[in-house]
Design goal:
alpha/beta; Rossmann fold; 5 domains; 6-stranded parallel sheet; 30 strands; globular; binds adenosine-5'-diphosphate; binds zinc ion
Length: 698
């Protein structure tokens, strides 16, 4: 029998199922076709996920498809499979992933692009017809020429043009070989190589080989590391590199998507969002700086980690994955330990310099001995002076921007806080103002306490203050500062001037720890390194280590030994021991306390402007979660609800419930059970919009 055809459609919404639509007679669609439909009285463009389905609801209530969007390129089946894998893992809807992959804006522009392609194709059609009819040879020639031009335009992108090859050193070649071997065994490779060892060269070599083999390459970097420098290095080996990240114009991103869709081996250099391009024929995914936390998307859903999602994509694409870092994440080291990844070491620096020597200065002891001048120790000042006298440069890291991170009233002891986030406001100067570093709220600075009128006293020193102190000691030197208060347009100029040796001392926040090579930089120093080590977060130490190690790598490039000075109140901290070659076993600590990667963490986050309702419902939700696992063999541990460090966002209060799953075979099933419990709770209490889920929170 030939009844009406029903199809399922993925909509860019948080739905647990793909709704069903009727395909009107004469309308044709395939899996992946983009269709316009109505849902809850609104129109959406969705993607067909299944054909010929048997509807579960009454047939007469099923709405018709309004139109098939012929102008939009179809979604590939492997894209849909990838979205499903991501949604499954991160406990979100396929629609939310679809929305991330095809934002509404992009959809309209895509239509324009597709139409252009269509226009080209239909013009070629006309030309071909005319050519067939042409009687005279020269007329036919003319049409043929015109056709060739159009064909070239269509295919221009398919041509593989390679630049120069990469020459590896013997140590690099050995590492490359070990990586190829791991690939041939079907393993993901984790390349651990100190800064300057030439990891990038190895990526380029393997990328080139992959492209020559007719497969495509996705080269991922953390948001902040996407420098022009890297783009140019890649372009030298592969001129047609496609750059894709949130800072690239929408037009350009559309071109990249079209290029990727149009086939032929391609190389995309991008940030995590490049995972959602219409990939096909991928042979290699490179994840550089795989430990970097900016691979994690905080909001909105899917709250995915680019590194882990790259692994999911590789499974669908049959691609190899190469993770690289100077300081691999504990997650990846764990995966190496259980044999899922293979670690490849590259310990030799290309320019053969030693790593910068570490010196830890105890500021508490120094203050007692009168060895401190404000926030700087005499020892550090001495080192800075001799470095500058030798014609070299200094980089100073202070992890907090502002003049003073906190103010306190000398009369009543009150600390001015953000009215939205309840965290201390920082004092910034030139111009004077108080700023919340979390939400950006600002107020004028008056110097007096808002409640009692007493004088406000700064507590601690931010980058501005450190810069000021350095100026007072080195008035004849050129000193600059780089942090997120630096106007956007000036950043590049400061880096260029520092590289050219026009700046002697550069003070800054984390921005200065990444990515740049400076020939004359031989001393890097951290002021108040303690602020990098949090107590709240079990990952803080690991991150501090990664940041410090990366910062250290800035010092003494090109074969010269550099210095690395750390000022701290807690010189015995294990992170410093590890920097000095000690084996601080962070993994066994994680195991002992039941933290990831030995367990899987899921945060359930609740937000509500009504705090009473929030407190009540988050307690109820906790109970619902516990109830869902009553009969489980290995139930998760449930902590909370509690207020996270930042317990207000905008005008909403925040509560969190932490669910820690044992890592075993039933994990996927238990995670699904959690998602179902949350979904049911949201529906019953009409509270869905207030609840979000974060799997593997950063
Ligand atoms: P990493 O990515 O490990 O920090 P890079 O690939 O950036 O290291 O290499 C550090 C420096 O050494 C760069 O300036 C790079 O051009 C140079 N270099 C490394 N390996 C080679 C090589 N095989 N041939 C030429 N230059 C190299
Ligand atoms: Zn705030």
């Amino acid at each position: 029998m030939d009844g009406p055809a029903f199809i399922q459609v993925i909509l860019p919404l948080r739905l647990e199922w793909d709704p069903c639509y009727r395909l009107p007679e004469g309308m044709r669609a395939e899996v992946g076709s983009r269709v316009r439909v109505q849902f809850a009285h609104k129109e959406y463009v969705g993607t067909v996920s299944a054909l010929d389905v048997t509807p579960e609801t009454a047939v007469e209530r099923i709405q018709p498809v309004l139109s098939v969007e012929e102008g939009l390129p179809s979604v590939l089946p492997e894209e849909i499979r990838f979205w499903k894998a991501v949604a499954d893992y991160y406990l979100c809807s396929v629609g939310e992933v679809y929305k991330a992959a095809y934002p509404a804006l992009k959809r309209e522009q895509e239509a324009v692009q597709a139409r252009e392609q269509e226009r080209l194709e239909s013009r070629m059609e006309v030309l071909r017809a005319k050519m067939d009819k042409a009687r005279r040879d020269d007329t036919r020639e003319r049409y043929a020429d015109a056709l060739r031009v159009l064909e070239e335009r269509l295919q221009a992108q398919d041509v593989l043009s390679l630049g120069k090859d990469v020459e590896l050193t013997p140590a690099q070649e050995a590492a490359a070989k070990a990586i190829r071997d791991a690939f041939s065994r079907g393993k993901t490779a984790l390349l651990e190589g100190v800064t300057g060892s030439g990891k990038t060269e190895i990526y380029l070599k393997l990328a080139r080989e992959t492209l020559l083999g007719g497969k495509s390459v996705l080269y991922l970097v953390p948001e902040i590391a996407l420098s022009r420098q890297l783009e140019q290095r890649i372009a030298a080996v592969f001129p047609d590199v496609q750059v894709f990240h949130s800072g690239v114009s929408a037009t350009r991103r559309r071109t990249v998507a079209t290029r990727v869709r149009s086939g032929g081996p391609y190389l995309v250099l991008g940030t995590r969002s490049a995972l959602f391009l219409p990939h096909h024929g991928l042979g290699l995914i490179i994840v550089d700086e795989e430990h970097d936390t900016s691979y994690k998307q905080e909001s909105p859903a899917p709250r995915y980690n680019g590194r882990d999602t790259a692994i999911m994509l590789s499974v669908i694409q049959g691609a190899h994955v190469l993770l690289g870092s100077a300081t691999p994440s504990l997650e990846s080291l764990y995966n190496t330990g259980i044999g899922r990844y293979e670690k490849v070491d590259l310990s030799e620096r290309f320019h053969h310099g030693e790593e910068a020597a570490v010196q830890v200065i105890d500021t508490v002891a120094e203050r007692r001995k009168r060895g401190m001048e404000g926030d700087l120790s005499r020892k550090l000042l001495h080192e800075i002076r001799s470095t500058l006298d030798a014609g070299e440069q200094v980089l100073v890291l202070r992890a907090r921007r502002s003049y003073a991170p906190t103010l306190q009233c000398t009369e009543c002891g009150q600390i001015p806080k953000c009215p939205h986030c309840h965290i201390p406001l920082s004092w910034h100067r030139n111009p004077d103002r108080l700023i919340c570093h979390y939400c950006g709220h600002t107020e004028p600075y008056t110097g007096t306490c808002p409640s009692c009128g007493g004088a406000l006293q700064p507590i601690g020193a931010g980058t501005q203050r450190i810069e000021e102190e350095l100026r007072s000691f080195f008035p004849e030197r050129t000193i600059a500062r780089l942090d997120s208060d630096t106007p956007d347009g000036e950043e590049a100029g400061i880096i260029r001037r520092f590289a050219a040796g026009e700046i002697d001392i550069l003070v800054g926040t984390q921005i200065i720890t990444k990515g740049f090579d400076f020939d004359r930089l031989s001393l890097v120093a951290v002021i108040q390194a303690d602020s990098l080590m949090g107590q709240q977060d079990f990952r803080a130490d690991e991150r501090a280590f990664q940041l410090l190690q990366q910062f250290r790598g800035r010092s003494g490039r090109r074969g010269k030994g550099g210095k690395f000075i750390i000022q701290t109140r807690e010189p015995g901290h294990p992170v410093y021991a590890r920097l000095q070659g000690g084996e601080a076993d962070l993994l066994s600590e994680r195991r002992l306390f039941g933290y990831p990667p030995y367990t899987r963490l899921v945060h359930v986050i609740l937000r509500d402007p009504n705090e009473k309702r929030l407190d009540f419902l988050s307690r109820e939700l906790r109970n619902a979660i516990l109830a869902a696992f009553l009969d489980a063999d290995t139930p998760p541990s449930v902590v909370g609800p509690y207020a996270p460090v930042v317990d207000r966002v905008g005008d909403e209060s925040v509560r969190q419930v932490r669910v820690t799953f044992p890592r075993n075979k039933s994990l996927p099933e238990l995670k699904k059970r959690l998602a179902k419990a949350l979904g049911d709770f949201g529906k019953e209490r009409k509270y869905t919009a207030h609840i979000s889920i974060d799997v593997d929170p950063a």
